[in-house]
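From the methods appendix. Each design record in this collection lists the tokenized structure first, followed by the designed amino acid sequence. Records were kept in a plain field format so they could be parsed without special tools. The example shown here is representative of the layout used throughout.

RECORD:
FOLD TOKENS (247 positions):
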């Protein structure tokens, strides 16, 4: 937030995604904190450099971190960026924290313990994904990464309302019952989704690939996710609206 409130420079990483001083400082702070908290558990972060599969393949449990999710939103100063920290065990995110620094707001959830929302200084409030009612489906989509495949998916739903926002906030809208579906039919990395997936699942929703299989982590060399769906009501077949090229 110190960086956010003052002028800062933006550079491009090798994949042409933006990088700011805030990404690097947050990364250092989080990794130092996790090493103090759980020195026996390794950590993988977007900004900590590549960890070879030969090393990661021996990790049954590890922290997975995105120190600044939504750097484009950070640069725009629209308050729609998050900090994502997940504990992954046996390829599943079993605990997740999604912090929204400009709003002093945190979403968190853990397997078997439920999901919560808390503003600094307030009591934690339990949150729950919602079941579909009789009105239009409320969809949420990326502010910076919307694709034609998503437009086709929404058109197939038919009766829907759409809101757009950045970063893991889209997952949080599902987890707290403000939206029903978030289709992501484009590339993301594992650190983009793990923490928020833990929150959504703890709130009773789902995060799956296009065949409705839950997203899993650290399964091989690549850290790129498949296309996925985030939803509140598991009784609806959300894969039914997928365009053929997105399955």
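DESIGN:
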């Amino acid at each position: 937030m110190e960086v956010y409130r003052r002028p800062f420079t933006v550079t491009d990483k090798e994949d042409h995604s933006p990088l700011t001083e805030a990404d690097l400082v947050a990364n250092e702070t989080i990794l130092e904190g996790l090493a103090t908290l759980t020195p026996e558990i390794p950590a993988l972060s977007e900004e900590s450099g590549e960890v070879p599969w030969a090393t990661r393949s021996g990790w049954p449990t590890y922290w997975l971190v995105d120190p600044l999710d939504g750097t484009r939103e950070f640069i725009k100063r629209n308050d729609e960026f998050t900090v994502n920290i997940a504990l992954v065990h046996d390829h599943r995110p079993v605990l997740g924290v999604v912090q929204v620094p400009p709003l002093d707001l945190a979403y968190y959830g853990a397997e078997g313990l439920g999901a919560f929302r808390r503003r600094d200084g307030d009591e934690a409030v339990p949150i729950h994904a919602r079941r579909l009612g009789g009105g239009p489906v409320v969809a949420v989509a990326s502010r910076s990464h919307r694709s034609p495949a998503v437009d086709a998916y929404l058109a197939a739903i038919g009766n829907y309302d759409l809101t757009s926002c950045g970063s893991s906030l889209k997952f949080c809208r599902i987890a707290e019952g403000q939206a029903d579906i978030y289709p992501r039919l484009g590339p993301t990395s594992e650190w983009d989704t793990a923490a928020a997936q833990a929150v959504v699942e703890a709130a009773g929703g789902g995060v799956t690939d296009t065949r409705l299989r839950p997203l899993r982590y650290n399964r091989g060399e690549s850290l790129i996710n498949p296309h996925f769906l985030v939803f509140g009501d598991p009784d609806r077949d959300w894969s039914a609206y997928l365009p053929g090229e997105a399955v």
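APPENDIX NOTE: The two ends are 39 Å apart (CA to CA).
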